[in-house]
Write a structure and sequence with these properties.
Elements lengths: L2 H9 L8 E3 L23 E4 L6 E2 L20 H4 L2 E7 L10 H8 L5 E5 L10 H8 L2 E7 L10 H6 L5 E5 L3 H5 L1
Parallel strand pairs: 1-2, 2-3, 4-5, 4-6, 6-7
Length: 180
């Protein structure tokens, strides 16, 4: 938004009205929602984001680790039943904003086979979660690259990975953040 739009918002703001900055994306991805410096510290009263320091913490999901590693009690050969090697799904931010994820995957694809789905790839996948899960569960590995590598940012892809029974190849947060 332009400065004039921010000025108008502040001019018509009711006294005592609470404004909440709510997003699941890192600030680098959504610069238009950040007020100009003149309004930086008196626009939003509360924050509702993925970061633990927000007034309202809204992470995509979480997992609870087991006390000890689970054994393969079902006797399943996971490598054998998954016919495909690696997948990557991206819905936006192919190039530019923070880093070129598409180039990274294409470079990695020179060494290991990766099926690339979504707007940044060469294959399509259903937006229906159950149908997409059926396709992605066929892969041994899933490449999960955050569109921005910043503190505590783990997107919905990381959350979804927990149900695909694939080994994640991740780049985004720190190891400690993935372990939380």
């Amino acid at each position: 938004m332009e400065l004039e739009e921010w000025e108008a918002l502040h001019r018509y703001r009711s006294p005592g009205q609470i404004w909440i900055f709510a997003t699941q994306e890192p600030a680098a991805i959504i610069p238009d929602f950040l007020p100009p410096k003149v309004y930086r510290y008196d626009t939003y009263n509360w924050s509702f984001t993925f970061h633990s320091t927000s007034d309202i913490h809204g992470a995509y999901g979480w997992y609870t680790p087991h006390d000890k590693p689970r054994s393969n009690t079902r006797g399943i050969n996971w490598y054998q039943i998954k016919p495909k090697f690696a997948s990557w799904v991206s819905s936006r931010h192919c190039k530019g904003l923070v880093w070129d994820r598409t180039k990274f995957v294409k470079d990695l694809n020179k060494f290991i086979p990766i099926d690339m789905y979504g707007v940044c790839g060469n294959a399509t996948i259903s937006r229906n979660r159950d149908i997409a899960k059926g396709v992605l569960k066929k892969y041994k590995f899933h490449v999960s690259l955050e569109n921005s590598c910043c503190s505590e940012y783990l997107s919905e892809v990381w959350d979804a990975l927990q149900t695909w029974e694939s080994v994640p190849i991740v780049l985004g947060g720190t190891k400690e953040e993935y372990d939380k």
